[in-house]
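Exam revision sheet. Question 4 asks you to relate a sequence to its structure. Input first:
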Amino acid sequence: MNIDLTPIFQAIIMLAAGLITYKLVPWIKSKTTQQQQQNIQAAYRIFIMAAEQIYGANHGPEKLQYVVDGLRARGYDVDVPTIEALVMELFNYDPFGAIGETEDGKREAE
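Answer key, structure tokens:
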């Protein structure tokens, strides 16, 4: 008679991962001050903008590697999803809010 304990172990692992995320992320944030968090964000933004200036369009992997290498060289723990989120924020930001393009390509307020 074989008893398969795999689902039980999977549930335990999922529970542990959830608890670690629930406790670890706030703990890490509590260990850095607001000024430190702003400095980290500024470093990410500087490297993202520098990569854009150096490589231009259509060089995503090269730009990402430049940002990762630059941040690691300065002692930052690199979080690729944070880099991707900042890229979206920096290059897809619409300062006017609900502005769209018409069919002929002109921009107008919606």
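Marking note for examiners. Residues 33-95 form one domain.
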